[in-house]
Specification:
By secondary structure, the chain is an all-alpha fold. The longest helix has 17 residues. The chain is built from four helices and no strands. It is 79% helix and 0% strand.
Length: 66
Amino acid sequence: MIEIDIWRAACEMFEIYELGAGWNAGLRANHLLEQGDVDGFHVWVRIANAIKELQGSSACRVMATC
């Protein structure tokens, strides 16, 4: 998954779950790891990290206008 897609997914998660976005991304990552999908796990860890960076910023609104 390319970097812009990570950020788009993070923004979408943040818009849907707000403060629970990071927690939900972590759940998805753990579920994928339990299923043996290591690549999917790493993608969702990247999304969770992007969500942490987004909290308290206006980056999603800026990306939505691009």
